[in-house]
UniProtKB/TrEMBL annotation:
It comes from Plakobranchus ocellatus. One of its GO terms (molecular function) is nucleic acid binding. The keyword Cell inner membrane does not apply. Residues 262-335 are annotated as: Disordered. Coiled coil: none annotated. SUPFAM superfamilies: Retrovirus zinc finger-like domains. Residues 188-201 form the CCHC-type domain. Residues 314-333 have a biased composition (Basic and acidic residues). Keywords: Metal-binding, Nucleotidyltransferase, RNA-directed DNA polymerase, Transferase, Zinc, Zinc-finger. This is RNA-directed DNA polymerase from mobile element jockey.
């Protein structure tokens, strides 16, 4: 079996590192000389060169010809050097899902799939056992994974693999591990203070990253969402972390704000500013007029009525109730999002549906993304045999239930016309088994429907 990626996908070592063999560092030389040397070797004025923390230089190549030219050099500015690919930037990960690959081992997939250096099958725990799934994480020998891949006669879609942001378990900050942390003392993940661990902490949650009222490990933290968005962009487009941050951090701060949803709603409900005069506001403001005097003033100026104050309180109360209804979907999704992220290997975005059920009007369109894929919003959904609708009136379930029971009643009518089935006891047993069991199932849930909705089941009961 010969398996290869799509045509046009030609991986090459895009990020190369120039390391000096001796004590003299290449990065210590003049940047002008380094730039001229790059131009003489590669013949390109727009070469991207980055100085690493180790004193080495990393260059971003654009073609295989440049990679061959760079690999042929032994000295750089009279300094003996070695040229090697970057350890992490030249590879990428993608996720494929197929039941047809269930019988294939990880070694077979690495051997047969061209451009794949490693394969890892996702496993889920069921009790004490680990069960293999149809999801496989592939490591490609290219900075960016292909959109599709050929596996024998199959064509499989490849989704970028987005890892979770790295958080230090010592200082609770992101982008480094516990072994490389420079913090002298550990910090509590709950309150953000040192001197104790989380299990001994009873203080209120306080995040050390965004200063919010949640733990540093919360998956609804704005800092966590920012790092996750950066990793997603890097997985889909490639590049270094510096390039990705420069490209997307502005957009991230626009979409991920530390404001609460309620404060955003309140800002939208503010009254409009007063209109400017026709001259554009260039005229000087008029002086305040003096209050009228005498009996005429008392006659012209009406006394404030309590009814007017009550009228202003009613819209304010309605706006507050509307704000709560707008905030409810977002709070619900924020509580569900961490659970969905933990179970993203067992929850399928293809078969899952999002149903926001409320008997009051929905002012915001709820949205939930799982592993980067949006879950479609539906007006009704069937769950464990009960049809839920967005208004919770269960009219759809009653129609569905009536249709099922009528089929069983037709069977009873046929049996009732036979000699052996005309017995009353036999018909009652069949009714309890075929009809009453369907009515009883889920009655605790759909029994909350209004009487005129449940009245549709009267022909079934009688």
């Amino acid at each position: 079996m010969s398996v290869s990626p799509f045509a046009g996908w030609s991986p090459f070592k895009k990020f190369m590192v120039i390391s000096s063999k001796g004590s003299a560092k290449v990065a210590d030389r003049s940047p002008f000389k380094i730039h001229r040397e790059w131009r003489s070797i590669l013949g390109d004025k727009t070469i991207e060169v980055t100085k690493l923390g180790s004193g080495d230089l990393m260059v971003e190549l654009k073609s295989n010809d440049q990679a061959k030219k760079l690999g042929a050099i032994a000295t750089f500015l009279d300094i003996p050097v070695t040229v090697s690919p970057h350890k992490s930037l030249n590879s990428s990960k993608g996720v494929i899902r197929s039941r047809d690959l269930r019988c294939c081992s990880e070694e077979e997939m690495v051997e047969e799939l061209s451009g794949v250096t490693h394969a890892r099958r996702i496993k889920v725990r069921r009790g004490e056992d680990k069960i293999q799934t149809d999801t496989v994480v592939l490591t490609f020998d290219s900075p960016k994974p292909p959109s599709r891949i050929r596996a024998g006669y199959l064509t499989l879609d490849v989704r970028p693999h987005v890892p979770l942001p790295m958080r230090c378990y010592k200082c609770q900050r992101y982008n480094h591990g516990k072994d490389r942390c420079k913090k002298p003392a550990a910090v509590c993940v709950r309150c953000g203070k040192g001197g104790h661990v989380e299990r001994d902490c009873s203080a209120d949650p306080h995040c050390v990253n965004c200063k919010g009222d949640h733990t540093a490990s919360s998956k609804i933290c704005p800092k966590f969402l920012e790092e996750q968005a950066i990793l997603r962009y890097k997985a889909e487009n490639g590049g270094t972390f510096q390039q990705v941050r420069k490209a997307v951090v502005v957009e991230i701060h626009k979409t991920i704000s530390t404001r609460t949803f309620a404060s955003a709603v309140k800002s939208q409900l503010r009254t409009k500013p007063a209109a400017l005069p026709k001259d554009g506001g260039r005229s000087a403001p008029s002086a305040p007029s003096a209050p009228p005097k005498g009996k005429k003033a008392q006659k012209d100026s009406p006394a404030p009525s309590p009814q007017g104050a009550a009228e202003t309180e009613v819209p304010a109360k309605r706006r507050a109730e509307k704000s709560k209804r707008q905030e409810a979907p977002r709070e619900t999704l924020n509580r569900f999002a961490p659970l969905a992220m933990d179970a993203e290997d067992t929850i399928s975005t293809i078969t899952s549906k999002l149903l926001y059920a409320a008997r009051q009007r929905i002012y915001t369109e709820p949205a939930l993304h799982l592993d980067g894929q949006p879950i479609p919003v539906k007006g009704e959904a069937k769950f464990l045999g009960v049809v839920f609708d967005s208004k919770l009136n269960f009219s759809s379930h009653v129609k569905y239930l009536k249709k099922k029971c009528l089929k069983a009643l037709n069977l009873l009518r046929v049996v009732g016309h036979t000699d052996w089935g005309a017995d009353r006891g036999t018909l009652l047993k069949l009714y309890r088994t075929l009809v009453r069991s369907k009515l009883d199932y889920g009655s605790v849930i759909y029994g909350s429907a209004k009487k005129h909705v449940l009245r549709a089941l009267d022909p079934i009961h009688h």
